[in-house]
Design brief:
220 residues; alpha+beta; Hypothetical Protein Pfu-838710-001; 8-stranded antiparallel beta barrel; 5 helices; 20% helix; globular
Length: 220
């Protein structure tokens, strides 16, 4: 298992000062029709809840947009737990997206940071994503449930192919609903189906609109 799920299970994603961890990230995503039913199935399967809180992504690029042009990602991800645990952040670089046997695959280099200084290196924020998340470990995979300010609830399953398949089965969501598509593809389908504009960052919600997050995601 790679990424934050593995780090959180060990007591914190990307502890500051840790050496960079390079992996090949394999994952699938699906829309969650019933988050409560998904949580119940994970609990019944003995899944371990390794993180619950708010996850804030800030993606960076050069002024000329060269990272996006190469389908590369430079991201600072901040974790704000709801409950036990301290807030922390990790810096991640992702290589171009590939499709491998139906899975989404990217090279990933990740390490913990205390003070993200990407702006000082000539980068500027190019994209923002805010979401409430739960990380679970089950069947050897990392399962992340994601609530956005305004969009469908999603589940991401990450691990080795056999781990992903076992965990996908545990969720009870039809295997055909899992895809290697990008987040923006899910946002586009939400727009087409509902006629509403998806919102992936809190500051773009309408005045007075509450984010579509669970009650536990509210600030303590």
């Amino acid at each position: 298992m790679s990424g934050a799920g593995a780090g959180l299970a060990a007591g914190g994603a990307g502890a500051a000062g840790a050496a960079p961890a390079g992996t090949r990230e394999l994952e699938l995503k699906a829309v969650v029709p019933d988050p409560a039913a998904l949580a119940a199935r994970l609990a019944a399967a003995g899944a371990a809840l390794t993180f619950r809180g708010v996850m804030r992504d800030r993606r960076y690029d050069r002024p000329d947009g060269s990272l996006v042009a190469r389908d590369e990602v430079l991201r600072v991800r901040a974790f704000e737990p709801r409950g036990a645990g301290a807030a922390h952040a990790e810096l991640t670089f992702k290589g171009p997206t590939q499709r491998t046997n139906g899975y989404k695959e990217r090279e990933e280099l990740q390490f913990g940071v205390e003070d993200a200084a990407a702006e000082r290196l000539g980068y500027a924020v190019s994209d923002v994503i805010d979401r409430a998340v739960e990380y679970h470990e089950v069947a050897g995979a990392a399962v992340r449930i994601e609530w956005y300010p305004r969009m469908d609830v999603l589940v991401e399953v990450e691990g080795a192919p056999e781990e992903i398949e076992r965990a996908a089965l545990v969720t009870g969501i039809p295997r055909g609903d899992f895809t290697a598509e990008r987040l923006l593809d899910f946002a586009a389908r939400y727009r087409e189906r509902t006629g509403r504009e998806p919102v992936l960052r809190l500051d773009l919600l309408a005045p007075g609109e509450r984010p579509g997050w669970p009650q536990w995601a509210a600030r303590p």
